[in-house]
Amino acid sequence: MVNAPERIGGIMINGVPEFYINIPRLQSILAFLSFNSHQAVPGLSQFPKSECPPRFSCT
Fold first, then answer.
1. Phi and psi (nearest 5°) for 5?
2. What secondary structure, in 3-state letters, does 17-45 show?
3. Beta 11-13 vs 6-8: how paired, if at all?
4. Residue 19: what pLDDT?
5. Residue 58 is assigned to a structural domain of this protein
6. Is 59 within the bounds of a domain?
7. b (16+ CB within 10 A) / e for 18-55
8. Cα separation, 51 vs 58, whole angstroms
9. Domain, as residue range, for 23
10. Residue 4: Cβ within 10 Å count
11. N- or C-end of the chain: fewer Cβ atoms within 10 A?
């Protein structure tokens, strides 16, 4: 996702994150150390399931 937000805190309710704080563009800033990055931040779904840690869902 380009200019990806970062979700901080929250809880999972029925597999959906709820009650989190959303900080716009923070994930892109942390990933690329730039405020004007036009690169997409890779998500877990872009990695093969064989490389996914056992407690994460890479779907």
1. -80, 165
2. EECCEEECCHHHHHHHCCCCCCCECCCHH
3. unpaired
4. 94
5. no
6. no
7. eeeeeeeeebbbeeeeeeebeeebeeeeeeeeeeeeee
8. 9
9. 6-51
10. 20
11. C
pLDDT score at 22:
92
* Statement: the pTM of the whole predicted model exceeds 0.70: no
56 lies in a domain?
no
Residue 6 has pLDDT above 60, yes or no: yes
Q: CA 19, CA 26: separation in Å to the nearest integer?
A: 18
Asked whether the predicted pLDDT for residue 59 surpasses 60, the reply is no
Residue whose tokens read 């999972």: 12
**Which residues have CB under 8 Å from 54's CB, separation 6+?**
none
- Please check whether residue 1 lies inside any domain of the structure: no
The number of folded domains in the chain is 1
